[in-house]
């Protein structure tokens, strides 16, 4: 495998960041995960738009211009012969002696890009079964709109969910409302057939897959409500699903072990999974 680090393409095992890198010391870094399909980066414009927001939110400069970044994403996928898979991009505030204050302006940001293939058949098998999600208190900070690598709460929630037989955690806020998944956005379909997901302005990451799915839902003329829902509303839903670049549209068939709807992937989730690439860029 080949990784890109600060201007160089290196064998994965030989690639690395300084132990003084602020990604290592402080998680002072932001990232993107993009789907690769047929060698193309899916929704690259939306991913770079979100990267722009993350960088601006933490006062970090662009490591390179957008066209250069887009080229590197494609190049890393190509050099790893990834036709269907994922590319990972991470920008940190660079390497400097450990000090909480931002480093001097001459310290260059660090840029890492890696890629890997995904076993589509295995992923489709998981989607055909659907997954169980486990609810967890949302103990994250307020700026979950920033796609930072500071993901310890997500790591702990997902691991706790896994230990209870879940493949994903669903975070629940202090009002009992579901915010989002540990690494996905959360959706339900009500018994009335309304697709419901939390507004992106309130305590969630604005998922690129979420944005693209909203476009598909609009094009299909489906009933949609961007409004938070609580755990009981999720239990009572006809269908539930998650979205993420790593999961596309993933049917949720159980929440805390309780079957949702028929306890099988719902027809709408299944169709949206099949059709989402029709509207992706
Ligand atoms: N995570 N919410 C959270 C907390 C996430 O970490 C992610 C994605 C999403 C979905 O965003 P998108 O549709 O742009 O992938 C929502 C990535 C995939 C990850 O950390 O692996």
From TrEMBL:
One Pfam family linked to the record: Aminotran_4
Purpose of the protein: Acts on leucine, isoleucine and valine.
Keyword field: Amino-acid biosynthesis, Branched-chain amino acid biosynthesis, Pyridoxal phosphate
EC number: 2.6.1.42
Keyword set includes Aminoacyl-tRNA synthetase: no
GO terms assigned for molecular function: branched-chain-amino-acid transaminase activity
InterPro entries referenced in this protein's UniProt entry, alphabetically: Aminotrans_IV, Aminotransferase-like, BCAT-like_C, BCAT-like_N, Class-IV_PLP-Dep_Aminotrnsfr
UniProt family annotation: Belongs to the class-IV pyridoxal-phosphate-dependent aminotransferase family.
Top-level class of the enzyme under EC nomenclature: transferase
Catalytic reactions of this protein: L-valine + 2-oxoglutarate = 3-methyl-2-oxobutanoate + L-glutamate; L-leucine + 2-oxoglutarate = 4-methyl-2-oxopentanoate + L-glutamate; L-isoleucine + 2-oxoglutarate = (S)-3-methyl-2-oxopentanoate + L-glutamate
Protein name from the UniProt record: Probable branched-chain-amino-acid aminotransferase
